[in-house]
Amino acid sequence: EAGVAQSPRYKIIEKRQSVAFWCNPISGHATLYWYQQILGQGPKLLIQFQNNGVVDDSQLPKDRFSAERLKGVDSTLKIQPAKLEDSAVYLCASSLSGSPEVGELFFGEGSRLTVL
Amino acid sequence: GDSVTQMEGPVTLSEEAFLTINCTYTATGYPSLFWYVQYPGEGLQLLLKATKADDKGSNKGFEATYRKETTSFHLEKGSVQVSDSAVYFCALSLDYKLSFGAGTTVTVRA
Known about the structure:
The complex is a heterodimer. Chain A is 0% helix and 47% strand. Chain A has strands spanning 5-7, 10-13, 19-24, 31-37, 44-50, 53-56, 65-68, 75-79, 88-95, 106-107, 111-115. In chain A, strands 2, 4, 5, 6, 9, 10 and 11 form a seven-stranded mixed sheet that branches. Chain A has a four-stranded antiparallel sheet with strand order 1-3-8-7, with no helix packed on it. The model of chain A has no long low-confidence stretch (mean pLDDT 93). By secondary structure, chain B is mainly β. Helix content of chain B is 0%, strand content 53%. Chain B contains no helices and twelve strands. In chain B, the strands form three sheets. In chain B, strands 2, 5, 6, 10, 11 and 12 form a six-stranded mixed sheet that branches. A four-stranded antiparallel sheet of chain B has the order 3-9-8-7, with no helix packed on it. In chain B, strands 1-4 form a two-stranded antiparallel ribbon. Chain B is globular, with a radius of gyration of 13 Å.
């Protein structure tokens, strides 16, 4: 079974530029998550989708971050304009269930962003 | 808010040594508790979980017991191998939200 695919693996941009990350979840997984992991910290949830609807985006900085999940499958996370503090690894995860207690989260390898 | 605090690393051990990584939690309700592991070059993956007090999660020789009285979920392994070198994350889930600790880097030397 194919895992969660993310691209690009690495991206370096100047501050105020824009960047987009793509995620393809495991086939059949209804729930998709985007996490931000800053160096030395644990992953922080940015947004959670159930199919193509948003379940939780309370920690997404909406003035610069946006995310969409077209047709309830692939998802794109965009940052515009980027700030230095956005340097982090962006993790995508998917699960069969919307409840972590019930459905295990499967993570991709992440997209590492460096903002100069 | 709901959160976990885990032992700071890095931790360096010799093969066959005993490993403990402490994790305590703060939650308004009754969370489920997890340990996730990230091996070098790989994505995060679930190591074990416990969904209620006194439950013991176990996998790959690792164990953790959900202790409500001490709000803890410490990870233990009796005899580590070089292949256990990784970053370990304690996490809790409440109200459909999964929150992670900062992670503990473990290096096992041959």
